[in-house]
Amino acid sequence: MILSIIDKINVMILKVQQIFTAMLLTVMTAVVLLQIILRYFLSFPTPWAEEIARILMIWIVLIGAAGMMIKGEHLCVDVFYRHFSVRMKKIIRVVYDAAILIFVCFVIYFSCRLLANPVIYKSHTPIAGLPLILYYLGLPISMTLMAIFEIGDIIQGMMDLCKPDRSKKGGEDMSVVLWLLLGILMFAGFPIFFAMGGVSTLMLLVEGTAAPMSIIQKMVYALDSFPLMAVPFFILAGEIMNRSGVTERIFSFAQTLVGHMHGGLGQVNVLASAFMAGCSGSAVSDVAGLGKVEIKAMSDAGYDTPFAAAVTAATATIGPIIPPSIPMVMYGSIAGVSVVKLFLGGIGPGVLMIIAMMLIVYVVSKRRSYPREERSTLKQILRSFIKSFPAIMMPVILLMSILSGIMTPTEGACFACLYAVFLGVVVYKTITIRDLWDILKTSSSFMSTTLIVIGMSGVLGLVLTQQQIPQKMLGLFLSVTSNKYVMLLLVNILLIILGCLIEAGPIIVILAPLLANVAIAYGVDPVHMGVVVVFNLMVSLCTPPVGMCLFLAAKVADISTVSLIKEVIPFLIILFVVLILITYVPATVTFIPGLFAAS
Questions:
Q1: 373-388 pLDDT per residue, tens
Q2: Which of 71, 116, 203, 531 is the most exposed place for a label (fewest CB within 10 A)?
Q3: 406, burial (CB in 10 Å: exposed 0-12, middle 13-18, buried 19+)
Q4: In 3-state terms, what secondary structure has residue 76?
Q5: Cβ contacts of residue 251 below 8 Å, gap of 6+?
Q6: Are 512 and 335 in contact (CB under 8 A)?
Q7: Does the model's pTM come out above 0.85?
Q8: 145-167: buried (b, 16+ CB within 10 Å) or exposed (e) per residue?
């Protein structure tokens, strides 16, 4: 009876959250589009639009985070947790829920006190004149929803523990302890946003170096970024493109171009992923959308399914390297590096990835005598090009508008959403208004899992600053070597190890400002360092035990992960070769940004 009531409450909260955040995402998109239209077509500046859009994004992230907590879809590292016995998992789950409940109650209490502060509730935003309280009001609401869920989850967990278990499986010193606690929580399967936010808050309170209300403000300030708003827009644009049938048209066009080569459909897979890279900026999105088409087509044509899945997983890593790129937006926003220059810096490595993976496909396919397609006629190529032309033009329009200065990356990402809707609703007629509503609900929830981690990184950043971690990390590198090439090797080794254990997003959030600081001290171009970091972490998407592309491709192909890992090894080797090349030949990254800067 109690569990039934708890489930009903959770379902109701989740439905309300999805509707509310989808509406906010719609309004935020409309506000930024209005800003573009008024400023560039009517020469009417709208500085208030950016302020409103930032407030809306904060609310989407905070309220969406509560929904993702209910669905159990927050980013977490379960490398060790998955191997615990059933009873141990139940115990950890109760401890996990209790710890999160304590943290959210802390946030609720002090965020309410912050809202009651006359400096906050009597003040207004500088441009739009909106009540300043709007920046912070979403935080206690979000945390209250989480608290309701956690109380129900604790009750459910305690009741589960009471059931019989039939499973047969089995000061500075304080700072060190708390840093260890952060690592333990992350690897024990706790949500990463809680591990970062909760432990960072505990550090600050134990050491007495920050007032509780300043901690609350940091959580919101970290999200108050217009460049960061490009992330939810690219996520939304990618989801619309995947649901609009664009992937099939792009695949067909790539097939007419390279289908006749050795490893025909494998080569098509590589080229199609390169085209899609300019649309979504996300590797996982490419596997989930284009991957279904690619794996089925290759398997039906006689390719081994594990090989087809390996090609799909490996080529999906091109998505975040060729612009636009969600990880590069995150890195640039957090490390203070130009997002536009990072986009340009990704073009060279992206081209090298395409060439390298086409070479691997060629060699393996020739050795295994995989089938080739018939060479397409010029008429077939033109017909396929015309069908896919609107989709192919999306990254072209997007990049040209950003590089020419007509739009910022955030405005360009918003325009990409509008263009994707135009393709799906008007051009291809594959998306209905109901479909759009479902897409908005899905996207608004999904973006929260990434951005809530960035919100909590504001508190972690306060800890890093107060404990002088950037200076200590720089001192550590300098104590080992003064040679920048050795330093780059150490950074790559560190990222490879972390990438095997933790997802790319949290690593970027934690290490981006530290590595940017190290790069400057060693005389390494910040753009070069940023692209190397993102490239390295994207390769980790195909490495066990937490490689998202690896597991998603295995799921789509309905094969075991072990069989997939065997086939993906050649691609990992060639990607590491490209990583070494872009690390020690900076021109592969910096040439194109320098070319645009000179012009």
A1: 888 888 899 998 988 8
A2: 116
A3: middle
A4: strand
A5: 268, 272, 290, 293, 294, 297
A6: yes
A7: no
A8: bbbbbbebbbbbbeebeeeeeee
